[in-house]
Amino acid sequence: MTKKPTMPATPPAVRANVSVAAPASSEEAPTSSRATRAAERRAAIVDAAMEEFIARGFAATRLDDIAKRAGVAKGTIYLHFKDKESMFEELVRIVIVPVVARLTTLPPPAGSVRDLIEAFAGNFLREVIGTRRGDLVRLIVAEGPRFPSVADFYYREVVSRGIAAMRALIELGIARGEIRDKDLARYPQILVAPAMIAVIWQSLFARHAPLDAQDMLRVHLDLIFGERRTT
Amino acid sequence: MTKKPTMPATPPAVRANVSVAAPASSEEAPTSSRATRAAERRAAIVDAAMEEFIARGFAATRLDDIAKRAGVAKGTIYLHFKDKESMFEELVRIVIVPVVARLTTLPPPAGSVRDLIEAFAGNFLREVIGTRRGDLVRLIVAEGPRFPSVADFYYREVVSRGIAAMRALIELGIARGEIRDKDLARYPQILVAPAMIAVIWQSLFARHAPLDAQDMLRVHLDLIFGERRTT
DNA sequence: AAAATATGACTGACTAGTCAGTCATAGTCA
DNA sequence: TGACTATGACTGACTAGTCAGTCATATTTT
């Protein structure tokens, strides 16, 4: 390479909006025991690694950069992770698991199916679309084929559960007469597709043509449930 | 790295199902003038590069491997392309352009809007979903953020045109009363979303849970147009 | 023979991973 | 309590290897 073609990763000033650790008082807070400090460092490494991997992809990310961003020596990374690969794999688990936990903690099953799904979509909008986590989803799509274990994990923990949950909701909707089309239960992907497209769109094309994801999802739900009767 | 973790790229035996050149008689066919031979070599390089980039991503792909797969010395690549980066960029153009050309050559605008869209979907199924070109789309999603010029090109040549074409069809459908939901014209993405999801699904999750893309698209169109009246 | 092409050994910049040594903290003893 | 020792988290210079890009040489075409 004649010169570095890669654009700089998000500069350190713009910190992740999704942090693994508590606010991580950046400097000199020996608030803590050895174990605590170690945990903080690990979290700092995870945050830094996520930023770098999202910005550059797995292969092009340098461990030196992760170390610098985390404010840690390179060797320290190897105290916490076996190697670059397993760091990437663990990273995905660490970031994804709590999100799934939160999203699958459904709100009380009160109200119509549409209300349930709207609550779901609202969470998704807030927690994923247009956030670092959305970028992480794109990263998984990007690196999945080269990391079968990551793809497997993601399928098992996120996709299959999500599909199952959506299918259950759709079947409920059909049973209650809220949803007309009975075939929809066979392809819950259709229900989720616009949300996924929104994630990708924000990552790739937002600067060409911003997308009002919330409004789009509303239109999509109108399509499935029929126009929203203004309560 | 202690050992190569990457799985081998598709072995040379399994040739691309999408070739840039004519069948590329692999050995010794001096059928041709210099210019022709040069063009064949260039095409072989493009094919090989596509395979490798799809299998490994940009950063992890070695030019030595592309050369070997194309049956060419590494130096030869530099007779055709300035460097790895511009090879990738040109590659995308070279492969995408003819597909767009073919897909935008609409069949005679006869029949219902649904028929038009179904024809479109059929082409897309055949030409993209589950083919190397589908993988290329995933690759663009993957590398887009690191190759703004690729993302720009893809947006300009494929996405914006596709969206515009879909919008036109939707508006026609609304005008003719085939489509109920008027808001759909504001988000043609909704019409296309399941097809994109199918592309990604085949790439990432096919071996966990195969997806009948054709049937899914049919269900989706039923959702938009209402159940298909059996002609 | 001259020109156009093609080759692949070579170079140098770059980076994953290592490890001997440092030092703040935790633990022990008088 | 204060001094002294043990621990292991942390460091960063270093090694071994990789790979994009070059170019002197060989091969093919005209």
Would you kindly provide a written description of the structure presented here, covering whatever features stand out?
The structure is a homodimer of 231-residue chains. Helices cover 62% and strands 0% of the residues of chain A. Chain A is mainly α and 231 residues long. Chain A has two domains: 1-81, Homeodomain-like (Arc Repressor Mutant, subunit A, Orthogonal Bundle), CATH 1.10.10; 92-225, Tetracycline Repressor, domain 2 (Orthogonal Bundle), CATH 1.10.357.10. Residues 1-17 and 21-30 of chain A have low confidence and may be disordered. Chains A and B meet through helix 6, helix 7, helix 8 and helix 9 of A and helix 6, helix 7, helix 8 and helix 9 of B. Chain A binds a DNA duplex (30 and 30 nucleotides) through residues 1-2, 30, 33-34, 37-38, 41, 62-64, 72-79, 83-84. Chains A, B: This is TetR family transcriptional regulator. Chains A, B: GO terms for molecular function: DNA-binding transcription factor activity; transcription cis-regulatory region binding. Chains A, B: Residues 39-99 form the HTH tetR-type domain. Chains A, B: Keywords: DNA-binding, Transcription, Transcription regulation.
